[in-house]
Amino acid sequence: MSDVERTYNVLFLCTHNSARSIFGEALLNSLSHTNLRGFSAGSEPGERIHPFAANLLHSMQIPTDGLHPKDWDVFEREDAPAMDFVFSVCDKTLDQTCPTWPGHPVTAHWGIDDPSQVQGDDATRQQAFRKAFYAMRSRIQLFANLPITSLDRLSLQSEVDAIGQTETTNDGENHA
């Protein structure tokens, strides 16, 4: 199979795997025009997807079938799909010792504020989840448009690191 036909596996990591990393998995898998497949996991996975995250995905008509929080050790198993990219999306995972992923995937930190930590009324909290969603959507769009097959590893690493530094507005627009 050539690199053009190959499917690239992408793992999004977040401590509880209940919102930001779930957004990454769902958004990437909702892109039908790519050869990218998303997964998500956490170091301390929650019991369920955060209700605000689930409601937002439903309202955006993004499929949620099969989405659920899972421990990142699922992807260390022998029968797990090999990851080509691993992106941490919360600052808490930076302080943790991450597993050594088989195959030495390209890794980057795409920190996004934790919407579940926002205090206030439901409207304020829902806005925090929308902000996280749009930040993830913006980064995934940039990532999905990279010419993965034509970049060497160093260039690819530079590109995914730069995506993690991208600022977005609440509507998902990119700003350098």
UniProtKB/TrEMBL annotation:
<dbReference type="InterPro" id="IPR036196">
    <property type="entry name" value="Ptyr_pPase_sf"/>
</dbReference>
<feature type="domain" description="Phosphotyrosine protein phosphatase I">
    <location>
        <begin position="8"/>
        <end position="146"/>
    </location>
</feature>
<keyword id="KW-0059">Arsenical resistance</keyword>
<dbReference type="InterPro" id="IPR023485">
    <property type="entry name" value="Ptyr_pPase"/>
</dbReference>
<protein>
    <submittedName>
        <fullName>Protein-tyrosine-phosphatase</fullName>
    </submittedName>
</protein>
<dbReference type="Pfam" id="PF01451">
    <property type="entry name" value="LMWPc"/>
</dbReference>
